Amino acid sequence: VFSNCSCVGVAGNFTAATSQCPDKDDCDRMFPYFLALSVITSFIISLGGTPGYMFLIRCIKPQLKSLALGFHALATRTLAGIPAPIYFGAIIDTTCLKWGQKRCGGTGACRIYNTTAYRIAYLGLTLSLRTISFIICIPGFILLSRQLKEEEKKSILTNGGTELEPLRKEQCVVLNSDHAANATENSSDKHVQL
After folding, report:
1. Mean predicted lDDT score pLDDT of the chain
2. Mean pLDDT, range 156-171, rounded to an integer
3. Rounded Cα gap, residues 97 and 116, in angstroms
4. Exposure string for 21-33, b = 16+ CB within 10 A, e = fewer
5. CA 31 to chain CA mean position, Å
6. Is 50 exceeded by the pLDDT of residue 104?
7. CA-to-CA distance for 112 and 108, rounded, in angstroms?
8. Of 13, 95, 147, 162, whose CB has the highest number of CB atoms within 10 Å?
9. What are φ and ψ of residue 108, in 5° steps?
10. Contact 111, 102 (CB under 8 A)
């Protein structure tokens, strides 16, 4: 028990003991809200997984699709999987209040974290990384929509629209079969006349 502590601000009581502060009552009430929010955000974020792969596959030439998927997996593992524990660990270490000591000297593991700073640092880093990724995706969507509009204009100008092509082929087949039927009728009439 420590006495005459100037940093303990309880009225008239300037003693402190080595233990964690007692939990507040609102902590138990906040956990279900946090859990529900985490589940909802994880669900919303996971909805982009399959469309992301479809987006990747549709933007690549057919002969390069397997190579593109390989590079995508490599980049994801290299740029996200390897450095993430490093910078998340560094951010979390900034919220440590009391570091432990190793037996042979040196700093050990953190014993007590500032929970408010920990929460803000951890969730803030996650939020900032997701925000950056969405901001980076916006120019990609804009460029892709422009490219698709240009390709549609080119296809309409060059052959009158790709959706009309099957109708033209069908019309040609019908006209050819009508000409063939007329030719056989004319030839049979000629045979009869002879």
Report:
1. 76
2. 57
3. 12
4. eeeeeeeeeeeee
5. 26
6. yes
7. 12
8. 95
9. -100, -150
10. no
CA-based nearest residue to 92, from 126, 66, 43, 69: 126
Strands of 80-194, DSSP E: 96-101, 107-113
CA–CA dist 16, 3 (Å, integer): 7
3-state DSSP assignment of residue 161: coil
Does the pLDDT of residue 99 top 80, yes or no?
Answer: yes
Structure-token pair, residue 158: 């060059």
User: In sequence order, what DSSP letters do the residues of 114-129 get, joined into one string?
Assistant: -HHHHHHHHHHHHHHH
d(CA 54, CA 41): 22
- Give 108's DSSP letter: E
How far apart, in Å, are the Cα atoms of 129 and each of 80, 87, 119? 11, 12, 15
- Whole-number pLDDT of residue 91: 92
Spatial distance between the Cα atoms of 92 and 123, rounded to a whole number of angstroms = 11
pTM across the whole model: 0.54
Residue 110, helix vs strand vs coil: strand
Instruction: Tell me the angle at which helices 49-58 and 65-76 cross, rounded to the nearest 10 degrees.
Output: 140
Sign of the Cα torsion 70, 74, 79, 80 reads positive
Confidence of residue 180 (pLDDT cuts 50, 70, 90): low
Tokens of 162: 């790709």
User: What would the two tokens of residue 31 be?
Assistant: 């956990």
Token look-up 């993430």 returns 84
